[in-house]
C-alpha cells in the first residue's frame, strides 16, 4: 500500500504518455484532470480538499521524444507549432476513498477523459496496482482455476476444448448432435461462439433443452460433466434467468462477452452466479491495437479479475488474429500472476490451434492451468473428433514431459496423424 | 429495411477497412467471421443455414491503397511480405434473427473479433442502419429532448449548465453551498463530475440529502426545479437504489458513465428509471482517437440511443480536448438526426465553454436542442455566477437572432463583461 504522510490509502495506475508538453507537466495535468480539478487551483480547492482527494504523480520516466504526434490533437494545432512530442511512462497514485468498490467510477478515474486531453497525443494504461485491502472490496473470481477444475473434474493438465461451429445458424437439434460428437470424443470443454445467444430460429431455452440431456448422458458415462460455456450475454434480467436455467439443468459454466455486457452487468452476474463465468473479450482489438492508445492487457485482465470472471480469452499462438505470439503468452502470464490477493484467471487459448502449439505454450508459460481450444485441430482431424481430442492431450503430455512431439507421436496414432495432416496444411 | 429474396430482415454496418488482402476479400472474411463461420465452408454450413444466418457484403468501395499498415499484424508478417495495403469502405448486412433485442450480442456481431483479424490492419465502425421494426425492440430514450425540457421547464433555448468543481473532494455541505450559488444564479442544469459518486468522505446519500433541500428551495422561487444530473454510476443494485432515492427526493435527472457501466447496465437502468438519463462518455477517446481503429461517433451514439440514454456528451468548440470543432458539431448533429424511429439524444457541449461559442454552435448546428455547460465561463465570470449564466443566455439570444455578439453586448453588461474578460484570457 502506498501511503502519504496522512496514511491515505492509495492505488496506482501506470501509463505511457506522449504529449506536446514535457512529461512531468503532462503527468500533473492528468493527475489534476482525474482528481480534484484542473492544473490550476480552483476556488474551493483547499489544502484539506487536496489532501483527501488529489491524485499524486509518483513516477515520471522520460523516454526519447518523437517529431510527429502518434494521435492528432486539434488543441495542439490551435496552440501553435510544436517541434517535438515528449514521451514517458508515468505513475499516478489515486486515493482509494475517492472511489470505493465502484468499478465504473474506477474506470472513469483511471481510463476516462485523460484519453482526450488536448496536450495528450498518446496515452495507454499499462498497469494498475492495488493494496489488498482495497482489492478485497471487489467481488473477484468466485471459482477461478481451482473451482473450474472441480466443476470439470480435470486436474493436472489443460482443459482441452472447442467452439461449436458454424458460429451461428445451427438449429437446436443440430447443436445437440455436435455436442454429442464432441462428448463422445471425451472432450473437456465446449463453448458457444460469441455471436450466439438467442437467435429467433434457435432460442436459448431450446438450445439448452436440446444439449443438456446429451451432456448428462455423457457425464454418466465419463464420471464428469463436460463443461459447456453457454453464452448468456444479454440484458441483466435475461442473464440472471439464463444462468439460473443452466444451473437448474445441471450445467457447469456460463459465458459472457465482457466488453459489451460491461462492468456493472458482469459484476452483477458474478454476485448472483453459482457457476464459473467464462469471459469472452471480443472487441478488445479496438481498445489495444493502436500501440499508443487504450489499454494493455496487463491492466485489462486485472479490471475483469476484480469484476469476478473466472476465465478470459487471450488468442492463440500462430493464430488467425493479428497478435504476436509473445503478446499472447504475456497475456496468459498476467492472468496467472498474483494481483493483490485476487484469484488468478484461467487463460483461454483459441484460434488456429492444434496439437503443435502445446509444447511452445508450455515452454513459454510453464503452466497447465489453461484452456486450449481447437476448432479445425479437433473437428478437422483426419481420424475424427476423438482422435483430434486425443492428439491435443498427447501433445500436452509430451510438452510436460519435455519429449519431442515427433518422437512422442511414434507410438501415438492420433498425434502422428495430426502432425502429418496439419503440418502439411 | 434491406430484404433478401427470402425477405430476411437485416440491419447494416458500414466500416472503413484496411487489409493485406483485396477489400472485397477482406469484406467476405469479415462477413464470414461475424456470422456463420470462416471464409471457407465448414461441415454443417448448409445452404439453409447460410440463408438464415450468413451476413452479406452489400457494398464495397475501394479507396487508394497505402504502403505501410496503419496497425501492425503479426499474421501478415508470418504470411510473408506485402507490397501494399488495400483500403475501402464496406457495408455488411446481418440477419436480425441472429441477434434479436440483445445489445451485447449486437456489439459482439458488429464490433467484436473483426477488430483482431490477421488480414485487417485497420478497421473502424462508421455507421449502422436499422429497420424501424428492429430498432423498436430496443428500449430507446424514454424522455429524450422533449421529456428533458418538461422536467427542466426550459423551452426554445439551450439548457445552460455547469459542472460542480473541484471535481472531487468537496464535503456534502460544501457541495450544497455551490449548488445554492448556482441556483441563485437561475441556472438550468448542474451535473456531477464523472469522478464523483460515493467517496468515503462525501457519500452519495449525504450529498443527496445536502443538495435536495437547496434545489427545492430554489424550485419554489423559480417555478422550476434546476435539473441536477447526479452521478449514480456503480453496481446494478446501487444504481437502481440511487435512482429511486433521487426520484423520491424530487430530483429530475440521473447521470451514468456509459462506457464503464456498460450496455447491459445502462439498458437495465433505463428499463427501471423514471428520470432522464444523462450519459457521460468518458473513455471514448480510447475507442475513437486512432483514425483507422474503433468507432465513429455516428455509430456510437446510435448504439447508446438504442440502450435508452437521453443526453450524451460531445465535447465543446475550442475545448481543452483533442477533438477538432467540426468533429464536435458532427457528433451533435448525429445525436439530433432521425434514426429508425428512435428518439434523438440531447447533445451536451462542455469543456472550455463560455458565451463566445454560442453563435458558432448555432450557425453550425441550427438547433437549440442542446445543453451548453460552462465551468470557468460561468463561475469565473468577473461579475459573479449570475452574470456568468446571464452571459450564456444572452449569447444564445444573439445567436438565434443572428445579431453580432459584440453589438448585442452593448446593452447587456453580463455579456459585455464576459467578452472583455474571457477574450483577453
Please give a structural write-up.
2 copies of one chain form a homodimer. With 425 residues, chain A is an alpha/beta fold. Helix content of chain A is 42%, strand content 18%. Chain A is built from 19 helices and 13 strands. In chain A, strands 5-6-7-8-9-11-12-13 form an 8-stranded parallel β-barrel. The first copy, chain A, has a 5-stranded mixed beta sheet with strand order 2-3-1-4-10. In chain A, helix 9 (236-248) runs parallel beside helix 11. Chain A starts with 9 loop residues before the first strand and ends with a helix. Chains A and B meet through helix 2, helix 3, helix 4, strand 4 and helix 9 of A and helix 2, helix 3, helix 4, strand 5 and helix 9 of B.
Describe the SSE topology.
The structure is a homodimer of 425-residue chains.
Chain A: E1 10-19, H1 23-33, H2 47-53, E2 56-66, H3 74-79, E3 85-95, H4 103-110, E4 120-129, H5 132-135, H6 144-152, E5 159-163, H7 172-184, E6 189-191, H8 204-222, E7 227-231, H9 236-248, E8 254-257, H10 258-261, H11 263-272, E9 277-280, H12 284-288, E10 293-295, H13 297-307, E11 311-313, H14 325-336, E12 346-349, H15 357-365, E13 371-373, H16 376-379, H17 385-401, H18 405-409, H19 413-424
Parallel strand pairs in A: 4-10, 5-6, 5-13, 6-7, 7-8, 8-9, 9-11, 11-12, 12-13
Antiparallel strand pairs in A: 1-3, 1-4, 2-3
